[in-house]
Amino acid sequence: MVNALDMLRDDHAALRRLLADIDRTPPRGVMTRARLFTQLRERFGHHEVVQEQLLYPVLEHRDRLPVPMADGRRVHAELDGLMADLAAVTFDDREWDARYAALRPRLERHLDEEEANLFDRIRDALSQRELDQLGRRMGLQRESSRSVTPPA
Known about the structure:
- By secondary structure, the protein is an all-alpha fold.
- It contains five helices and no strands.
- It has one domain (about 5-145).
């Protein structure tokens, strides 16, 4: 059984792999770049939905977690905007490279911040049983959100 923290770690690893794959794609690899960016945006969208609809509400109602989840929502909205800006440009345009150069470090910083700050707080706030239950709910939510287009 995958618990909530394992699921988040898996998401982070998948997002980092997609970033690395995009980095290795030559500018002329327009179709590959388009496919990888679509996967990145969808994966981040699923990750965001699971966190905001399931994880954050649980954590916000815990006395032992003194960190408001508003920061996470704000960063997710910022990243959604950067991804929407990137999606508005054709994949062979030089502007795409400039916008990707703005997105990449911000997304990596967000993943690093979650791992450095949020993961320990999750572990402190939730029992193993709660992590397992939340992981099960997150898996079901992810499956249902795959049919939904990520935020624009």
